[in-house]
Amino acid sequence: MNSALTAAEDKMKKTAASLKDGFAAIRTGRASTALFDKIRIDAYGDKQAINQVANIAVPEARVVVITPWDKALIGEIEKAIRTSELSLNPSNDGKIIRIAIPPLTEERRKELVKVAKAQAEQSRVAIRNIRRDGNDELKKQLKASTITEDEEKKYATELQTLTGNYIKDIDKILATKEKEIMEV
Questions:
Q1: Quick one: which of 156, 165, 154, 155 has its CA closest to 127?
Q2: How high is the pLDDT of residue 86?
Q3: Is 17:26 a contact under the CB 8 Å cutoff?
Q4: How many CB atoms within 10 Å of residue 172?
Q5: Which pLDDT score, from 0 to 100, does residue 184 have?
Q6: Which of 1, 32, 36, 37 has the fewest C-beta atoms lying within 10 Å of its C-beta?
Q7: What pLDDT, on a 0 to 100 scale, did the predictor assign at position 136?
Q8: Using alpha carbons only, how large is the chain's radius of gyration in Å?
């Protein structure tokens, strides 16, 4: 396989993985520890992820319990969750933080689907940009005579197939997330 194809495939794989990570942070009606992956708090003179300073558990379908390892951080964690874009209202008893995940309204579900579609479209654009960069690299290799015209055409076709496959993957990931958001 050509180096331009290999590099393009690696980048496409990372783009799809990045979309999955982004979707993990989109709240559905269910409780999930992934909701808190992107939230950072000031702890020990640095920004830390909540899962680096506390235990996060989901004891029930709509409840998340966060148990800080250092009780002094409980206020900081609560503040970070309250000010995040998750629109959640945590409560603490001095030892643990409980967060009830309210069911989503129909309007909010539709907003979240729009957000998911926008993220998926950004990923599709990124995949197409990777294809363009790969084609440019193949043209450079042809100009430098490291590949023949036939090889360039063959690799360009393979790159197009790769692009199509990753765009289909992104569509599948989006469909799964959309279904998850819309189910009550």
A1: 165
A2: 76
A3: no
A4: 11
A5: 62
A6: 1
A7: 95
A8: 22
CA distance 101 to 75: 19
For 98-113, write each residue's pLDDT tens digit: 998 888 888 888 888 9
**Euclidean distance between CA atoms 93 and 68, whole angstroms:** 12
Which residues fall within 8 angstroms of residue 155, CB to CB, at 6 or more apart?
Answer: 2, 4, 5, 138, 147
71 vs 183 pLDDT, higher one: 71
CA distance 44 to 35: 23
Q: Which residues contact 25 (CB under 8 A, 6 or more apart)?
A: 34, 35, 37, 38
Tokens of 16: 């799809």
The two structure tokens encoding residue 169: 């993957």
